[in-house]
Amino acid sequence: MLSKVMSSEPEVKHTGGCHCGAVRFEVWAPSVLKVVDCNCSICKMKQNRHIIVPSSKFKLLQGADAITTYTFNTHKAKHTFCRTCGVQSFYTPRSNPDGYGVMPHCLDPGTVSREEVAVFDGENWEAAMEVHGDNIRGRSKET
Fold first, then answer.
1. Domain count within the chain
2. DSSP tag of 124
């Protein structure tokens, strides 16, 4: 079950990036991460577990020139990854084109206290959004 969007926990600055270090970013989010584990066709293959944040809470520090993008189906999701090492450390989700999906496993150690993982049935995306859409869409809104 997807937990509520609102968190009373203060946000901390997390930093992270890709494997080779070409892409670096910072993101403001609680130390307890609300992680979405999606099973849509691409997320299943990439083992894509991510948090969703508003675009104002994400800042690309370096590597804009090292990023390439893959899209498919509706072309709303922008699957960005490092063209050198191939790691996707963040992307723009179809559900939240106004925010970012950030991969917790690409965050530097020391700022995450724990992860709370919720499964999202991306294989049945439209039906899952009918059930959880307000919660998911709300994750990229300012609080």
1. 1
2. G
